[in-house]
Amino acid sequence: RKEVEQDPGPFNVPEGATVAFNCTYSNSASQSFFWYRQDCRKEPKLLMSVYSSGNEDGRFTAQLNRASQYISLLIRDSKLSDSATYLCVVNPANTGFQKLVFGTGTRLLVSP
Amino acid sequence: GAGVSQSPRYKVAKRGQDVALRCDPISGHVSLFWYQQALGQGPEFLTYFQNEAQLDKSGLPSDRFFAERPEGSVSTLKIQRTQQEDSAVYLCASTSSGYQPQHFGDGTRLSIL
Quick one: DSSP state of residue A100? Predict the structure, then answer.
């Protein structure tokens, strides 16, 4: 079983739609959680950190369920520019640094 | 620019050749990471430096892979006797401290023929 698992997609949605991605992680001792965005042939960029209380940044909402070891990302009012791969990322242990473990990514395609 | 810079952007090598990939982190960033991203996969951790000290190299796939950061700034990832399975994008990231968000470079796309 992979340490971080997510549906590779692609998710094809029309502009304006709401779309949700899910991710599960296997290490219950994991310390911190993130969503990164990666455009085709580009570097990953931090989208947002994920906190137990849930957090929102504009059209993006992230949730963490530690009991179920489950992370989600909700995108409201999808834009064409949201088309990208969304990587679920976990820092699995208290190593003294962010030893990030990435999922394979979920590809999102937003169409006009 | 002010971001993480990697060179070369693309590298093609024949199987068995040695390659060296360079990373210039953001100025002043003490932490530096190398990742390997195979096609269709997420990045996988290779190694971590704090200044010139290599504190974790648990992700290096074999002893053909070697990384250094002798003066605590620029880092080089060297792959000896390359194999086809080494074909991937090699990403470098830096951060001001261990737990701050990592800033990634554009990567080096390595193709082994």
Answer: -
Q: Please name which of A33, A93, A18, A105 lies closest in space to residue A65, comparing C-alpha atoms.
A: A33
Distance CA A82, CA B37 (A): 22
Distance (Å, rounded) from C-alpha B47 to C-alpha A93?
Answer: 16
Question: Is A45's Cβ below 8 Å from some Cβ in B?
Answer: yes
A4–B56 CB contact, under 8 Å? no
Residues B3-28 pLDDT 10s: 999 999 999 999 999 999 999 999 99
Chain B residues whose C-beta is within 8 A of a chain A C-beta are: 31, 33, 40-45, 48, 50, 55-56, 91, 95, 98-99, 101-102, 104-107
**B38 and B90 Cβ atoms separated by less than 8 Å:** no
Q: What's the pLDDT tens digit per position in A52-63?
A: 888 999 999 999
Report in angstroms the alpha-carbon separations of B16 from A30, B19, B61, B66: 39, 10, 16, 15
Residue B99 reports pLDDT greater than 80:
no
